[in-house]
Specification:
six-stranded mixed sheet, Nucleotidyltransferase, domain 5, 15 helices, alpha/beta
């Protein structure tokens, strides 16, 4: 089955067309943001594709009801629209992508694949917030987790590279992009993750702060006079690396981090401090660690981030070879020869995970 994968994120629209053997036949990446994406460019790309037999859409949030990929129809789409408030930065572009693909590819079956699905089976200890029970029950409040498609692929690919598919493996996958999260993957299943009810929790990200004391936000609302829309806009678009360094581009931060007094140094240190702490927490959820995986834009390309993170995790047996780390391209093992824990760089291929799920749903 030939599958068109539509990955509409907060910063880009990725289109990939795979044949039945997952060979990439065509791909395109268009910029996206608050203004949406170029629909004419999408139409031109699709017009050149031969025999699109199914469409797979990356959708960030499946809510409490959708824990596996589903065939898109009117009821499922209505439900997905009801979840926009849970992922306001990501759900709208995914829904726009669904609408556009339906118009341009009428009659082609479409499947929604969810970033939350991989974490749907989190144990209660990892999924439950310590808030009043009536809140949890009335509003279905829990830790959902995100980037599940990336974590699922990266952990499965890591097992393949280690030659241990299906064996007992404790893997921490680090999806480090504009959005960032970690997952503790035990025997192929997510048992903990850093994002929570929304994609705001956890690591420092490009424009999101990660963990923030909720009392701080209440204080700003009460004493700073900030409104909910002002807080929401700041947390989604003006926090994280952008707030610390004045830019959300990790390449620019790394280029200036060695300059004494430049705020990029603080941004890098805060980013790595949170990354180390959360990676150790993920390992603790599995009672140890066999493999550490870096993936996505920063994870694949910023060897300085990988080196700094590994340096702080040496007590767990993590160590990278400096030369292998700097030269890593694509899927690579960058472990030091005597390291107890293997460290891998794995190219993000959410498209392969989405295509796999599409074929399962339509089989």
């Amino acid at each position: 089955m030939r599958v068109l994968v539509v990955n509409a994120g907060s910063t880009s629209l990725k289109l990939r067309f795979l044949d039945a053997n997952d060979v990439l036949l065509a791909d395109n990446e268009l910029p996206a943001g608050r203004g949406g994406f170029d629909q004419d460019a999408v139409a031109r790309f699709l017009a050149n594709l031969d025999r699109v037999e199914a469409v797979g859409h990356r959708v960030v949030h499946g809510g409490p009801r959708l824990s596996t990929a589903v065939l898109l129809d009117a009821p499922s789409e209505r439900y997905l629209r009801s979840l926009v408030d849970l992922a306001p930065l990501h759900q709208p572009p995914a829904l726009d992508g669904i609408d556009l693909a339906r118009r341009l590819l009428p009659g082609v079956r479409a499947v929604a694949c969810f970033d939350t699905a991989f974490h749907a089976g989190l144990p209660p200890a990892a999924a439950t917030y310590a808030i009043p029970e009536e809140w949890r029950d009335r509003y279905t409040l829990r830790r959902y987790g995100f980037h599940g498609l990336s974590h699922a692929y990266a952990s499965r690919r890591a097992a393949e590279l280690l030659g241990r598919p299906g064996e007992h493996l404790r893997i921490v996958t680090c999806h480090l992009g504009a959005g960032a999260s970690l997952a503790a993957v035990l025997d192929g299943k997510s048992v903990d993750t850093t994002m929570g009810f929304t994609p705001l929790e956890g690591l420092v990200m490009a424009t999101r702060p990660g963990d923030v004391d909720p009392g701080l936000l209440l204080w700003l609302e009460r004493h700073g006079g900030l409104t909910e829309p002002e807080l929401s806009d700041a947390l989604e678009h003006r926090a994280g690396l952008k707030a610390l360094a004045g830019t959300d581009d990790m390449r620019g931060i790394l280029a200036r981090a060695s300059i004494v007094g430049d705020r990029s140094r603080l941004a890098f240190d805060v980013y790595v401090h949170r990354l180390r702490a959360k990676a150790a927490a993920m390992a603790a959820a599995m009672n140890g660690l066999d493999c550490l995986v870096f993936t996505a834009g920063v994870g694949e390309n910023a060897n300085e981030v990988r080196a700094a993170a590994a340096a702080g995790l040496g007590f767990m047996g993590v160590a990278v070879d400096p030369e292998l780390n700097v030269s890593a391209r694509g899927d690579a093992d960058i472990s030091a020869s005597d390291a107890a824990v293997r460290t891998l760089v794995i190219r993000a291929r959410e498209d392969l995970e989405i295509a796999r799920q599409v074929r399962e749903v339509l089989a």
